[in-house]
Amino acid sequence: MRLAARRDAIALRPSKMGQKYPRSARIVRKADFDVVYRNGKRRSNSHFTVFLKANDLPQSRFGFSIKRALGGAVARNRIRRRIREVVRLHREEISAGWDFVIHPKPNVASAAFAALESDLVRLLKV
Questions:
Q1: pTM, full prediction
Q2: Theoretical Cys-Cys bridge with 49: which of 22, 39, 103, 113, CB 3.0 to 4.6 Å?
Q3: How far apart are CA 101 and CA 53, in angstroms?
Q4: Residues 6 or more apart from 92 whose CB is under 8 A from it?
C-alpha cells in the first residue's frame, strides 16, 4: 500500500523538464570566482551576499561559496542543494549576461525555503 501511494505522489509532481541547471550555467574555476570578487559589485540582504559582474555570454552563470563556519559537511551540502534549487527554478527569470557568486549567511541553515527563495531572487534580479 505504501509503495503505491508513493508512486502516485511522485507521478503528481510537476515535470522538471526545461528547468535544468547545466554545467555551462555554473562558475567552477577559481580564476572565474576571483574575477567576480575583484571586479564585480556586491549586494546583500539578511540571508545572502551576492557578488555580481557582467559577462559576455548569452546566459548568466552561478557559483556558490559555502564557508566551513556554516556547519559540517552535511549542513553545508544541504545549504548548497537549497540554493541550487532556487537558482534552477528561477534561472529563466534572472537577466542573462551576468556572473553571480552567492555566499549564504549563517541564518540560511534554519530559514524556510520560501524566505530563501524570495530573498535570493530579489538579489539576482539586476
A1: 0.82
A2: 103
A3: 9
A4: 19
